Predict the structure.
Amino acid sequence: GEIRGAALGSGVATGQLEAILRDAQAGEIAGTQLVDCLKFVLIGLGALGKVEATVQVLQQGAVYGLDVVRSAAGAVVELCRLGMQQELRRAGLLEAVRAVRQGLQHAPPCPEICSAVQFA
């Protein structure tokens, strides 16, 4: 039924997330393509109730680079617009934002991160 479909969708999205992050680390996907794909998958996972995926990617984003951080920050903004701010906060959004800001303090300013900070 519906629950099984949601679980299946969540599993597929989680697999896509892992593949995108792996490809990003290998340099096979980057720039706008990476940002758009990753943000889309994170918003999908959030809509399925898995907002912690977005928070984890944001927190670990500096490992993968600025494009991954931009994706996760953009997903945070979209999920907050969908009314999921409390869920994101419970999943550790504030700590993730702090980690990102510390890890990227020498990077150029990023509008997506600035927007995500306002929701933390």
